[in-house]
């Protein structure tokens, strides 16, 4: 996997949160359900009723590991929640989560009614940006999830790549490499998402321009369990070959791999060996062989001819 240093809190989120205050020595301020919103001082740490907190609508992460949540929940039961969540006030005794949904879920799972929280003010764009930055900082995030969060920050927060790099403490080339993952064929993106390919494999693949060649190399990685070094060597050989192209037969193999599932499904449906031919321009033909007039009639019936 990538050897990029892991994300810490970073100056991006810290700046947005205006330098998170320390937990007061005397503990957290209690906020009862009958007190007004003014009771939760902005910038302070307070204990807030969980039923007064609504989920952040900009949360970019929808799946949470149930086993990991259960482990965190058991820890919270024994030790309490060490790191407060962050919320913003949206009305009397109503708060909206900015960051910390996993901690909120685990605390609720533990049967605890209130939770320590930093109370902040933030507009919707800040909410989205903070949620995305917190999401990016998760250690177990795969490269495609990071890339998607980067793209959302560019599209929805109107950031340039340099500004994005500043927010997440990454240089521009690293940001660019993540974003380029989203231009890979979907089957390769899925393999990266499912941890079948490391970021090292992915970096080698994004340096290949032709999608057919990318698919061929991807198939070689999966079939032969190629190391990152072997893939880099394969890519170098590709670029050194005439025109930077694979041999004609291998390129055809790459294309047929892309359409293999369709060809197999059609062969199963028609009970005959279907052949697909795909040209470099994406045009092609499907050949359905038949053994006799009766066999032809059977195929025509399947086509509802």
Automatic annotation (TrEMBL):
InterPro entries on file: Chromosome_partition/occlusion (IPR050336), HTH_ParB/Spo0J (IPR041468), ParB/RepB/Spo0J (IPR004437), ParB/Sulfiredoxin_sf (IPR036086), ParB_dimer_C (IPR057240), ParB_N (IPR003115)
DNA-binding keyword on record: yes
Pfam families: HTH_ParB, ParB_C, ParB_N
Superkingdom, taxonomy of origin: Bacteria
Keywords: Chromosome partition, DNA-binding
Annotated ranges, domain ParB-like N-terminal: 46-136
NCBIfam families, sorted: parB_part
Recorded family membership: Belongs to the ParB family.
Name assigned to this protein: ParB/RepB/Spo0J family partition protein
Organism, scientific name: Pseudopedobacter beijingensis
């Amino acid at each position: 996997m990538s050897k990029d240093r892991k994300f810490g809190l970073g100056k991006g989120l810290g700046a947005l949160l205006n330098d998170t205050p320390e937990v007061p020595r005397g503990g957290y301020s209690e906020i009862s359900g009958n007190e007004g919103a003014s009771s939760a001082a902005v910038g302070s740490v307070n204990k807030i009723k969980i039923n007064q907190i609504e989920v952040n609508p900009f949360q970019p992460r929808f799946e949470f590991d149930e086993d990991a949540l259960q482990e965190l929940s058991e820890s919270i039961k024994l030790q309490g929640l060490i790191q407060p969540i962050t919320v913003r006030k949206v009305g009397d005794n109503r708060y909206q989560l900015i960051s910390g949904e996993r901690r909120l879920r685990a605390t609720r799972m533990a049967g605890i009614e209130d939770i320590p929280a930093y109370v902040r003010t933030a507009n919707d764009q800040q909410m989205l940006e903070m949620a995305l930055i917190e999401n990016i900082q998760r250690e177990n995030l795969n490269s495609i999830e990071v890339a998607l969060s980067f793209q959302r920050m560019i599209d929805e927060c109107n950031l340039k790549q340099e500004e994005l790099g500043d927010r997440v403490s990454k240089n521009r080339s690293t940001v660019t490499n993540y974003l380029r993952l989203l231009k890979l064929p979907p089957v390769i993106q899925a393999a990266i998402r499912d941890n079948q390919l490391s970021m090292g494999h992915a970096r080698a693949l994004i340096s290949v321009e032709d999608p057919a060649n990318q698919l061929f190399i991807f198939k070689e990685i999966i079939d032969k369990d190629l190391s990152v070094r072997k893939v880099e060597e394969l890519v170098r050989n590709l670029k050194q070959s005439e025109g930077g192209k694979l041999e004609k037969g291998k390129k055809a193999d790459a294309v047929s791999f892309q359409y293999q599932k369709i060809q197999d499904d059609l062969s199963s449906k028609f009970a005959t060996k279907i052949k697909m031919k795909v040209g470099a321009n994406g045009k092609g033909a499907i050949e359905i062989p038949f053994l006799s007039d009766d066999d032809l009639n059977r195929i025509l019936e399947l086509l509802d001819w």
